[in-house]
Amino acid sequence: MKIRSVNKKIYVYQLHQDDPRKCTSARLVRFKLAAPIRGLSRFEKNSIVLNPFAKEVLFPGDRCNIDGYGIIVIDCSWAKVQEVFSRGFLCTNLRLPILLAGNPINYGNPQKLSSVEALAAALFIVNLRRESETLIGIFKWGRTFIQLNRRPLKEYSSARSREEVRMIEREYFPLS
After folding, report:
1. I want to staple 103 with a disulfide (CB 3.0 to 4.6 A). Which of 23, 57, 92, 114 is the partner?
2. Computed from CA positions of residues 71, 76, 81, 85, in that sequence, does the dihedral angle turn out positive or negative?
3. pTM
4. Is the model's pLDDT at 102 over the cut of 90?
C-alpha cells in the first residue's frame, strides 16, 4: 500500500497503556505519518494538545497554530484518561467538538475516539482534509468514522468562531 506523506507537524505522546496491536498511534508512527515524542517540555506553548477535558474547543482558526507549531495527541487508555489529563500540559489545550467513534472498540460512543480519529477530526476541522484522509485511510474502519461524522465535521470546519462550533455541537448533540 502506497501512503502519501503528511507534511504537517503531527506528534503522538505514547503512554503505552493499551494493547500494542490495537494502538492507532503506534501504527501512525510505523507508517511515518506522525512522530513519537518522549515528553511535551520541548514544545512551544502554541502547540495544540488534544485534551478531552479542555474548556476551549478547536475551530478552523487554529490551523495557524498547527501549521506553525504542530498538533499533539496523548495516546493513553480510556480507563486512565482522567488521571493522565489531570496533570495538565503546558501547550495550548483544546478539545474536539463532540463526534462519534467509528473504531470497532468504541463504535458509536460520543467522544471515545481513538488517537487517529482525534487527529483526523482535528485536521478535517482546520481544513486539512487531504492530511485527515491520509491518516484515517490506513485503517479498514477509517471511512466509517468519516461517514458517521460527515455532516458535523463539515459544519465544524466552516465555523468562524469557537462559539459557532459550540452552537453546531449543541445542534447535533443537544444533551451533551
Report:
1. 114
2. negative
3. 0.90
4. yes
